[in-house]
Amino acid sequence: MTIQMYLIHPKQNEDDSAREELAAYIAQRQGFILMATSYGSLIAAFDDSLFEAVKAHHLVEFASGVTLNPNAPGAAALQQLFVQNMAAQLIERGQVQPGGGRPGSTQPPRAAQAADRFPPGYRPLRWGSRNDLADDEEGGE
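Structure (tokenized):
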């Protein structure tokens, strides 16, 4: 099992329900949504043996591997975002407790301070649409 990072672009990039369905499809296969872009794409990490199935999904327009240059400007911020989103998904799945401990473990969590940075009700798989962003820029809600 080798986990790789991929860019997944849906056929209807303005359709939030399509992104939600693709995210659920990946999550059901133990993958992770690392980030949702403002143009409708998903950056996801999952077992490379699943790539062809994800690429063939009826909602996928384009899928390809992605490599992040760790020395590029902004790379550290992206990596931090990826880690936070992945941690939140592990917590949501019940695979780790908030703070980083495993459910039922008596050992103290290793990353308690990281989980404390999540705001109450943090949901890693929800994102605003581009219409919401346009409303914000125009002074709307």
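Residues 3-137 form a domain with the Alpha-Beta Plaits fold (CATH 3.30.70.80). The chain has a mean pLDDT of 77.
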